[in-house]
UniProtKB/TrEMBL annotation:
Carbon 2 of the heme B porphyrin ring is defined according to the Fischer nomenclature. It comes from Pseudoroseicyclus tamaricis. PROSITE patterns: UBIA. Interacts with CtaA. Belongs to the UbiA prenyltransferase family. Protoheme IX farnesyltransferase subfamily. It is an enzyme of class 2 (transferase). Keywords: Cell membrane, Heme biosynthesis, Membrane, Transferase, Transmembrane, Transmembrane helix. It is a multi-pass membrane protein. This is Protoheme IX farnesyltransferase.
Length: 316
């Protein structure tokens, strides 16, 4: 009787909670998207009404969450095979794939239309393209077909600061393109550092990450190689209207920190990495997060000081 009751209880489907649906939106990724978009909006030369800024930020956050839900719907088959994704709501059976699809589509439409009505057509079009790029170009086409998945697909995460800039100005400028380039160039070394220490996850799922297609030594080379143009973009921003003494000082410190980590990854062998359980790779991955948040935080702080006439080129 006890065994029968255990079997019956195991057959009962797990009921999804609000937290499961929220997890579909990839809140950690959403937080990065919201922050970079908000900085692009506030650092733009045209002031935005606080209410409009709030609505625009909400729309961008919802659009990012919609992309996450659509990605989890499409990747539900391979998420069950990867250790870092198998605890997500769909692989655990708490949410059905079609529910994630419906949620993603509904939120996409809501976010794009509301952003259009609240701000302008360009920002809404950029948000719509970002959702399409992440859900279709990256998730459906690139991710399972080419080791360039992260390189090209990184554009999806690079659009939010450009969207924020477009909310404020209604256009695109050199500054917003450089903000895009900063995130775009940051994405490959950030994810490849992760790929080095998650070991066989991507291979088990059949995802052609660079570590699987070209080998781990080649990935180490690419982490360092992509960090060099990333540093160039970082320093280039300092000499635009976004730049100043404060931004340059912070950018230089972060560039040296990340470049040193990328060089350490480049010099290490797999035997060395195995010996200390990939301690350096894990550290550089965390450094990469601080690197991006630090740059955008410095841009925001520089913008405030510039409005006060401080810490500019030609100022103190």
């Amino acid at each position: 009787m006890q065994e029968a009751s255990l079997d019956e209880s195991a057959a009962v489907p797990v009921e999804a909670g609000l937290g499961d649906y929220f997890a579909l939106l990839k809140p950690r990724v959403m937080s990065l998207v919201v922050f970079t978009a908000l900085v692009g909006m506030l650092a733009a030369p045209v002031p935005v009404h606080p209410y409009i800024a709030f609505v625009a930020t909400l729309c961008i956050a919802v659009g990012a969450g919609a992309s996450g839900a659509l990605n989890m719907w499409w990747d539900s088959d391979i998420d069950t095979k990867m250790r870092r994704t198998r605890s997500r709501p769909i692989p655990q059976g708490r949410v059905r794939p079609e529910e994630a699809l419906g949620l993603g589509l509904a939120l996409s439409g809501f976010a794009v239309v509301l952003l259009w009505l609240a701000t302008n057509l360009l920002s809404a079009a950029l948000l719509a393209f970002t959702i399409f790029f992440y859900s279709v170009i990256y998730s459906m086409i690139l991710k399972r077909r080419t080791p360039q998945n992260i390189v090209i697909g990184g554009a999806a995460g690079a659009f939010p600061p450009m969207i924020g800039w477009a909310v404020a100005t209604g256009g695109v400028s050199l500054e917003s393109v450089l903000l895009f380039a900063l995130v775009f160039m940051w994405t490959p070394p950030h994810f490849w550092a992760l790929a080095l220490f998650v070991k066989t996850d991507y291979g088990d799922a059949g995802v052609p990450m660079l570590t699987e297609t070209h080998g781990r030594p080649a990935t180490r080379v690419q982490v360092f190689a992509y960090t060099l143009p990333l540093v160039a973009v970082s320093l280039g921003i300092a000499f635009t209207s976004l730049g100043g003494w404060l931004y340059l000082a912070v950018a230089l410190a972060l560039d040296v920190w990340f470049l040193a980590g990328a060089w350490a990854i480049f010099r290490r062998s797999e035997a060395q990495a195995e010996a200390d359980s990939y301690a350096t790779e894990k550290r550089v991955f965390m450094v990469s997060l601080w690197y991006l948040f630090g740059h955008f935080g410095a841009i925001l702080a520089q913008s405030v000081l510039t409005q006060w006439g401080l810490a500019q080129w030609g100022g103190f």
